[in-house]
């Protein structure tokens, strides 16, 4: 098997060299995006369908369980957690908050370990760990135990989303990624709407084995995660070269497409070097993408926090306010899928990030301008505008960053780094909607609008910066480039290779 995999990888590299040697005088990006004659489009679609059916349900299930396990503490609290453990409001909030510190801190190290090991080893380990922590959370006896459990839950869950984002880059070409990212993100998020009814049903087990109902929420959902971890090695595949559900011909064809699409003019990086970490930490593209990311996280966390309250302030009851959030999120997720489809179809990222943010900004301006004592329907409608412009850029900015990072070590680190710093914006967003300002929320709306303007400006700057680099590289022929650099130098350069073209 190892020999067969090696031969496939070799054939992919050989094909890449052959194609570029015969196309020296053509634009490199055009050559990379062309489908060679032996890449039959019907075959490509058939291969992608096979991969979608095997990979996306697994990633969706993992993301769903991580969503349930990090958020079910709210359901448990409604069922009596704080009362039974004697938690004050401050202690309960600290148990919520502490999760996010290790969750952000361990994303980059986790993706490095993912590359050192492999997905079928590392992902089951972290899923088993967080499932075990979740199960044991059902037997905590006080504030200290709950605080420690939430901390270690953050440690274990930290690696999932950056790992899933990176794994997609190893299975799909650059302009096939955003649609898949949107599919598993939307599917898991919508499925999360069932977390409340599920917890409500489990809570009925109150008293069984002498345990309170809220404990069974943690125990049963934790055991379900452990079960998923145990079957994960049998349903997850490390790489297309090892995909047993593809025929040898299909594997070879797909590997060729990936090699061409992500090529920087040399074989991929095979071993970790500290320079790859340094490259990611000092990459201007990643840091600009973080500013674009903050347009979603800072604004989004504040929006999530304030949405039920904002609807309630329109004159609806608390129960109806919760129900009226569902259509807002439902419409937003539809736009996430539509935007991702056209972004991949047109092979562009910036327009499908910047323009939705502009729509979102218009929504916030309208919310600030509309009178608070009338037109509740118009203000509720503006919430749809805000959400429809706010959520589509999330998948886009992650895909954009991943598309513009080469080789695989830097891409794994860079994806995790972007998500790490980007998610820290949530700490800001959670504190900008002040109760004393209700129903106007001047601070929340104003900060959100300012962050959106910053994200839009960063998006334009990133797009024009990448275009400028591409034009400089297009001024050189491949023959000139290969005369200047050795294959080893091109390999170490990653996306800084003059043969690499950035996605705009």
UniProtKB/TrEMBL annotation:
<feature type="transmembrane region" description="Helical">
    <location>
        <begin position="121"/>
        <end position="141"/>
    </location>
</feature>
<keyword id="KW-0812">Transmembrane</keyword>
<dbReference type="InterPro" id="IPR036259">
    <property type="entry name" value="MFS_trans_sf"/>
</dbReference>
<dbReference type="InterPro" id="IPR011701">
    <property type="entry name" value="MFS"/>
</dbReference>
<feature type="transmembrane region" description="Helical">
    <location>
        <begin position="147"/>
        <end position="169"/>
    </location>
</feature>
<feature type="transmembrane region" description="Helical">
    <location>
        <begin position="445"/>
        <end position="466"/>
    </location>
</feature>
<dbReference type="GO" id="GO:0022857">
    <property type="term" value="F:transmembrane transporter activity"/>
</dbReference>
<dbReference type="InterPro" id="IPR020846">
    <property type="entry name" value="MFS_dom"/>
</dbReference>
<feature type="transmembrane region" description="Helical">
    <location>
        <begin position="288"/>
        <end position="311"/>
    </location>
</feature>
<protein>
    <recommendedName>
        <fullName>Major facilitator superfamily (MFS) profile domain-containing protein</fullName>
    </recommendedName>
</protein>
<feature type="transmembrane region" description="Helical">
    <location>
        <begin position="181"/>
        <end position="202"/>
    </location>
</feature>
<keyword id="KW-0472">Membrane</keyword>
<keyword id="KW-0813">Transport</keyword>
<keyword id="KW-1133">Transmembrane helix</keyword>
<dbReference type="GO" id="GO:0016020">
    <property type="term" value="C:membrane"/>
</dbReference>
<dbReference type="Pfam" id="PF07690">
    <property type="entry name" value="MFS_1"/>
</dbReference>
<feature type="domain" description="Major facilitator superfamily (MFS) profile">
    <location>
        <begin position="55"/>
        <end position="473"/>
    </location>
</feature>
<feature type="transmembrane region" description="Helical">
    <location>
        <begin position="412"/>
        <end position="433"/>
    </location>
</feature>
<feature type="transmembrane region" description="Helical">
    <location>
        <begin position="350"/>
        <end position="370"/>
    </location>
</feature>
<feature type="transmembrane region" description="Helical">
    <location>
        <begin position="323"/>
        <end position="343"/>
    </location>
</feature>
<feature type="transmembrane region" description="Helical">
    <location>
        <begin position="214"/>
        <end position="236"/>
    </location>
</feature>
<feature type="transmembrane region" description="Helical">
    <location>
        <begin position="382"/>
        <end position="400"/>
    </location>
</feature>
